[in-house]
Amino acid sequence: MVTLILLGALALCVLVQLYFSFFRFLPLSKHQDPEPDVPRPVSVIVAAHNEQDNLFELLPQLLDQDYPEFEVVLVNDRSDDDTEFYTFELERQYPNFRVVTVKKTPEYLNPKKYALALGIRAAKYEHLLFTDADCRPCSPIWIKKMQAGYKNGAEVVLGYSPYAQLKGFLNHLIRYETLLTGIQYLSQANAGRAYMGVGRNLSYTKSCFFKNKGFASHIKLTGGDDDLFVRDAANNSEVSIVIDKEAQTASIPKKTFREWVVQKRRHLSVGGRYRAADRRRIGAFVGANVLFYILFFILLVLNSHFAILGALAGVRYLTVFPVYLAAARRLDEKISLLLMPVLDLVYFVNYLFLGISVVLYKKIRWK
């Protein structure tokens, strides 16, 4: 009797995953970005703290974008490296490059949000485009492609930001996690239920920022300058997505498991601030995957109903994973189908322990 109940629960987990795969993720793989229309003046904003080496590479790529009218606003956030000297020379070379310097963050305010808010206030143009210092635009028409998202009256445009493909299992895991996170928030936004974006590739209007009182609802929290702002903006603003490869920014992944865990804990720490409906959807997807593995291994240990167990695992492997691959191809992510079961298991087990650690140890720090 107990094993039948467990098998029923396992089957339910598979059904939940099939629902998300076919009714949310599969439509994303067929999404077509809008074609660019009339170019809008754009302010590209980057907040950087001791990112001199990254800025050496990033800023020239931003300033050489193929776009008729734009500026790059760098917020030099309390840096004590050579950022100031380097950017001084760039200001002389590029009339559309400006620097906002932060000497000290007011007490009780989050440094990054404070820096971004200053950059937004300093921006000349209505349309704002954000990325991080450790990112690189994937094409010289990144600005052009991202601004196409405003074509149908949107006030927020969500982009995708993959991590660079390097050697090693950790890199495979990071890119798999990025893919699953991406297809979740992009597919929900595509269905009219936006709940987050990533600050590595995000655009919104200045009017939208002030209409939603900026970062006021979460100004003291570490993290949330991207996802929690999108949460607030989605309540009264149209949100669109742009996912073509040319509209992406590639990021440099963490090199050690410890660094990645710290980063993921920071991201997960704001999840409790999402709207209840969004938490339920995320919880259903993650919970169905985590519970699938728990129940699968329990039933494996009980040595019963191997045929049914194998059938359910086979259905999941032959239906869910191909949908992930279709979404990956649309996002130009290269994920191995053979390695996917291992990555999936490690990712969701790790997600479980990370979630527990965030609940038990809530102190999260920014730079």
Description:
This protein is 51% helix and 11% strand. By secondary structure, the protein is α/β, with parallel strands linked by helices. It folds into two domains: 2-28 and 276-360, no CATH class; 32-174 and 188-255, Spore Coat Polysaccharide Biosynthesis Protein SpsA, Chain A. Helix 2 (52-63) links the parallel strand 1 and strand 2. It starts with a helix and ends in a 7-residue tail after the last helix. GO terms for molecular function: glycosyltransferase activity. It comes from Pontibacter mangrovi.
- State which percent range the strand residues make up: 5-15%
Any idea what the CATH architecture of the largest domain is? Alpha-Beta Complex
> CATH topology of the largest domain, which one?
Spore Coat Polysaccharide Biosynthesis Protein SpsA, Chain A
Low-confidence stretches: none
Return the string of H and E elements: HEHEHEHEEHEHEHHEEHHHH
- How many helices does DSSP assign? 12
SSE class = alpha/beta
Going across the major beta sheet, what is the strand order?
A: 3-2-1-4-7-6-8
Task: Give the radius of gyration.
Answer: 21 Å
List how many beta strands DSSP finds.
9
Q: In CATH's first tier, which class of the largest domain applies?
A: Alpha Beta
CA(first)-CA(last) distance? 53 Å
The biggest beta sheet reads: 7 strands, mixed
Attribute tags:
367 residues, alpha/beta, Spore Coat Polysaccharide Biosynthesis Protein SpsA, Chain A, 7-stranded mixed β-sheet, two-stranded antiparallel sheet, 12 helices, transmembrane helix, Nucleotide-diphossugar_trans, Glycosyltransferase
